[in-house]
Description:
Bound molecules: Phenylacetyl coenzyme A
Radius of gyration: 21 Å
Helix content: 55-70%
Strand order of the largest sheet: 1-2
Amino acid sequence: MSVQELEKIFQDKIDNEIRIEPKDWMPEKYRQNLIRQISQHAHSEIVGMLPEGNWISRAPSLKRKLILIAKVQDEAGHGLYLYSAAETLGISRDEMTEQLLSGKAKYSSIFNYPTLTWADMGAIGWLVDGAAIMNQVPLCRTSYGPYSRAMIRVCKEESFHQRQGFETLLVLSRGNEEQRAMVQDAIDRWWWPSLMMFGPHDSESQHSEQSMKWKIKRFSNDELRQRFVDMIAEQVKLLGMTLPDPDLKWNEEHKHYDFGTINWEEFWNVVSGNGPCNKQRLEARNKAWSEGAWVREAAVAHAEKRAARKKQVAA
Ligand code: FAQ
């Protein structure tokens, strides 16, 4: 079969909502684009454990500590499903890890901001997981089978995360003056970086057009960002707080909230490695990797020993 014929079969499957599976023929650019997106997504989950991990030892009660540990563990699980999904496209886990540790790979800009107070745990759950879900629910229908199936479980867990984040802020917002101020301060610091999670404007997004044709992406960066603004602009009222945007205003004609201009210079600065915590995050991952070397070596030695014993028994 010619490449044109193979491409036609491939695109027909996508147009007819048939998932592409690992052993199916696919264009090389589709494979590379998926490896790029899925591995960046996996790295985001893994690096995303760090800002929250920072508060496990300082959670205000045993109950809050248990919830936070469970959430951080969930993020590790998401990273693992996603690395496995990417491996089905022919890249090894070691290669992806090397790309992250060397600073070559991208991960979400949001995780390069510091977590300064306990209210940040609530703001991350509500805003960061909230933005993550808005972007990831459509990925449950993404055209690549292993990615779409991984996203179903991820989204269930993320929606629990978002609710626990909102509840954390709700409790604080019903507390004393100092606690309310802490909530407002956390919202003020996390709001704009959360909007940046959706990526550049559609006109600046290099991958969107092709990714939409391949149904890797179902909605554009700006469409999802707008939905997120519309959702949060209502929810923030329940907290009795405000969003730090003087231009946020309901637009009756278009039935959505208009909002102010994102600081794209800040966004690209963070994406290119110069955000407040980029260096710290990579150092933490590299430290964990080298300190975990003995565990990996022990696991390999154990597996080899077991395999040798099995061989002996069989003989
Ligand atoms: N940060 O052409 P586009 C989470 C890059 S998971 C850094 O629009 P695309 C869970 C982009 O990679 C959060 N880089 O790209 C959690 C590209 O660079 P490249 C992560 C960004 O792929 C919660 C360039 O800019 N979620 O939060 C960002 O079509 C709480 C041009 O951009 C996912 O990864 C950014 N924000 O659209 C964990 C979801 N935005 O590769 C712990 C899957 C863009 O050419 C605690 N990913 N870039 O060098 C996606 O949906 C897409 O990849 C987008 C970007 C929408 C992120």
